[in-house]
């Protein structure tokens, strides 16, 4: 009898991005069985593509670089970027638990996150990633491996959630479509975590909530259709801030595939390490490290709605792994100033010299140097030193792209779904990009991976703390499978 390890009914998690996988890990770790449903045939969603990093305030990594940061400053940056929209409780929870989230990834999932970068709208360097490997790929592959080591996980790939069954505002089950044979399967459960991501690829939902963006290019995978938001709304769940769609300023225009509406993202870290933007008159026009909405609007105001991203070799060294990838994909080109700017070479050299004369780093301010950057840029991790016509640069053409949906399902700090009568739907949770309220009108770079980790952990903890009875056949079946 003592060899019965599992005494709980399975929780159903839908979506295998960072939010779904974090919750899955935490549940399995505490011996709660999980059925994980994913409509694709692989793990990771948009999370696996994340290229800049994950935020944390007052972390040991920041301290090791002597950086001054606090939960309060991080919260202030988040609220300012959100333009006071969204849910303050969720925002406080996000920042309060950021240090814990980073430590969990480092200590339990073995993600080193040893580098910190400053992204747009942040007052300091707090976006963490590891050297030599993109953050989304590293986090998802390591977490996936850990999750698969536990007992009690039943993974159903090629399985699409199509409806949720509830009775008196209490979850009793769900239906999914097996995409391989087109059969519909009903699963009973009292705890359903929906982690299906955003709706940046859904023309239907963009048409409904933000029609002016329907024809915009996007960085989102084709699976990003907002099915979670629609299904939850159909059983009475509340949706908030759905018209808040984030345009990311820098999607790469691939020279041999210019018209493709799907674009590779030019990671914000390219600007974080020092990259600047020039318009087609080869002039700067914005503080490149303003929040995403501000930089995007500035680009959209240029005549041709695009810009050239320019970096040098020092910046390359700082972000080598990813720049090598972008170069291989012919998104960034290694060239010289003269080759790139031709007749404007002298003008650009002067511009880069002028720009680089104020190498102000907000964390290393020389009190005697006044920050006189023309556009108010304070953080210049690397500048253009010793510029001449033969200086090596990396350059690429970029344009704004639909990137992230801030709005979504209304939740409380436990990730519980709130219905239109402002009550909790018992047993239904929404976490990650499918939820709304954490980012208000504009998400800070690095806050999405953080949201997935923080709220993934919180829903799992909430479910574990609520008593689950072994009262249905799925629970019993899984329990039998799990008897050692
Ligand atoms: C190119 C790119 C770079 C980014 N870089 C960063 C970064 O550096 N830092 C940061 O913080 N954020 C970044 N983001 C944003 C961040 O990656 C995502 O917002 C976040 O990962 C969302 O995680 P999620 O778990 O909520 O959803 P996802 O990771 O998108 O996962 C959702 C999963 O649910 C599945 N699914 C959807 N519908 C159904 C259904 N009906 N049934 C079954 N399964 C379903 C999908 O197939 C998918 O696998 C980036 C985004 C992109 C696109
Ligand atoms: C976040 O932490 C602060 C300071 O400890 C606390 O006052 C606040 O209530 C916390 N917020 C939430 C939502 O837990
Ligand atoms: C480029 O930016 C400068 C400075 O804001 C502006 O004067 C110029 O008109 C812009 N050029 C284009 C093509 O938009
Ligand atoms: C500056 O650039 C010139 C020409 O590119 C090069 O010959 C010289 O060595 C460089 N000086 C320094 C200090 O890097």
From TrEMBL:
Comment on bound cofactor: Binds 1 FAD per monomer.
GO molecular function, one term: fumarate reductase (NADH) activity
Broadest EC class assigned to this enzyme: oxidoreductase
EC id: 1.3.1.6
Cofactor(s) it depends on: FAD
Pfam families per record: FAD_binding_2
Catalytic activity: succinate + NAD(+) = fumarate + NADH + H(+)
Signal peptide boundaries: none
Domain FAD-dependent oxidoreductase 2 FAD-binding: 11-449
Record key words, sorted: FAD, Flavoprotein, Oxidoreductase
InterPro entries linked: FAD-dep_OxRdtase_2_FAD-bd (IPR003953), FAD-oxidoreductase_2 (IPR050315), FAD/NAD-bd_sf (IPR036188), Flavocytochrome_c (IPR010960), Succ_DH/fumarate_Rdtase_cat_sf (IPR027477)
Function: Irreversibly catalyzes the reduction of fumarate to succinate.
Protein family (similarity comment): Belongs to the FAD-dependent oxidoreductase 2 family. FRD/SDH subfamily.
Name of this protein: Fumarate reductase
């Amino acid at each position: 009898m003592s060899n019965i390890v599992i005494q709980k009914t399975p929780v159903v998690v839908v979506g295998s991005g960072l939010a779904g996988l974090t919750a899955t890990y935490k549940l399995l770790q505490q011996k709660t069985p999980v059925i994980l449903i994913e409509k694709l045939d692989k793990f990771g969603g948009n999370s696996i593509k994340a290229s800049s990093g994950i935020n944390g305030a007052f972390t040991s990594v920041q301290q090791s670089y002597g950086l001054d940061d606090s939960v309060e400053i991080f919260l202030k940056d988040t609220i300012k970027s959100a333009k006071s929209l969204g849910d303050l409780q969720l925002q406080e929870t996000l920042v309060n638990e950021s240090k814990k989230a980073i430590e969990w990834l480092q200590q339990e999932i073995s993600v080193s996150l040893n580098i910190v970068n400053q992204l747009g709208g942040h007052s300091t360097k707090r976006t963490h990633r590891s050297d030599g490997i993109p953050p989304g790929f590293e986090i998802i592959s390591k977490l996936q491996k850990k999750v698969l080591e536990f007992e009690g996980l039943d993974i159903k790939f090629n399985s699409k959630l199509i409806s949720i069954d509830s009775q008196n505002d209490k979850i009793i089950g769900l239906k999914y479509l097996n995409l391989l044979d087109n059969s519909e399967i009903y699963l009973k459960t009292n705890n359903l975590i929906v982690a299906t991501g955003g709706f940046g690829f859904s023309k239907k939902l963009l048409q409904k909530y933000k029609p002016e963006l329907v024809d915009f290019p996007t960085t989102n995978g084709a699976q990003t259709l907002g099915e979670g938001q629609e299904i939850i709304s159909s059983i009475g769940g509340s949706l908030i801030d759905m018209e808040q769609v984030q345009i990311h300023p820098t999607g790469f225009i691939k020279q041999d595939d210019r018209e493709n509406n799907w674009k590779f993202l030019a990671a914000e870290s390219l600007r974080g390490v020092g990259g600047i933007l020039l318009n087609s008159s080869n002039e700067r026009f914005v503080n490149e490290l303003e929040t995403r909405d501000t930089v995007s609007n500035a680009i959209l105001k240029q005549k041709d709605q695009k810009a050239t991203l320019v970096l040098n070799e020092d910046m390359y060294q700082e972000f080598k792994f990813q720049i090598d990838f972008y170069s291989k994909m012919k998104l960034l080109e290694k060239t010289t100033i003269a080759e790139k700017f031709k007749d404007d070479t002298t003008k650009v050299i002067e511009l880069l010299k002028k720009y680089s004369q104020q190498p102000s780093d907000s964390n290393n301010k020389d009190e005697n140097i006044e920050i006189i950057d023309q556009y108010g840029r304070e953080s210049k991790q690397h500048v253009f030193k010793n510029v001449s016509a033969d200086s090596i640069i990396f350059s690429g053409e970029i344009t704004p792209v639909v990137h992230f949906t801030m709005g979504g399902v209304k939740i409380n700090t436990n990730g519980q779904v709130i219905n239109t009568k402002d009550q909790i739907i018992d047993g239904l949770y929404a976490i990650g990009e499918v939820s709304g309220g954490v980012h208000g009108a504009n998400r800070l770079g690095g806050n999405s991976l953080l949201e997935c980790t923080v709220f993934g952990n919180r829903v799992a903890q909430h479910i574990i703390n609520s008593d689950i009875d072994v009262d249905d056949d799925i629970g019993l079946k899984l329990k039998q499978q799990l008897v050692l």
